[in-house]
Amino acid sequence: MNTTARSRPSAVTDIDVLRVFCAGDGRYGNALGVVRDGRTRPDEASRQALAKELGFSETVFVDDPERGDVDIYTPGVRLPFAGHPLVGAAWLLDLEVVHPPAGEVWVRGDGEFTWIEARAEWAPPRTLRRYGSAAEVDALDVPEPGEWIYAWAWEEEAAGRIRARAFPGRGDGIDEDEATGAAALLLTAELGRALNITQGRGSQILTAPGPDGVIELGGRVRLERTLTLTP
């Protein structure tokens, strides 16, 4: 997966577009933009502008590909931590650890899955709203902008299977988030057990509580395409 970066003028920006938390057949997953050479967008304003232009739920800028120093943006704000961007970046960079602003994130591979270790307190606040059935979650309309809602219901409680949908409520063009690792961390911490979450159209997120408040977050990743932006 690793490739040697080509020498490019600083004004040219290469962006790998990944799908993170794909289903078993490779479909679905949340789109993620990864700028492998963060020097092409060196300041916060230019990074925020690019994240808004791309319109993905998150875009990652890699500041040091060997150390795994990364910077994460939604179309509207910079984030210290986010689940699917870190799973995707760790897979793409093929590292054992990545460093977002929130702290050190350890990584492991397990066959088709990439796992990261994180803490629920790193996740931004979310409203976890439980429903009585998966059908109720499926029938939900996108709410008006406001609070960030993670709607969920048990599909099979004994097996830890969850049906979920995520509504960021930010008014930035992302009405529904296809696969949300941070919210999965919060739900895992609340329920205190491993979960197998089907979110959005069919994305799959796996979680597993560990010692000392650490939670593993895992899923499949695939490279969809590479974009090149020029002035």
TrEMBL record:
Origin: domain of life: Bacteria
UniProt cross-references to InterPro entries, sorted A to Z: Phenazine_PhzF-like (IPR003719)
Lineage: Bacteria, Bacillati, Actinomycetota, Actinomycetes, Kitasatosporales
Annotated SUPFAM superfamilies: Diaminopimelate epimerase-like
Name recorded for this polypeptide: PhzF family phenazine biosynthesis protein
Organism: Streptomyces lateritius
Pfam families, alphabetized: PhzC-PhzF
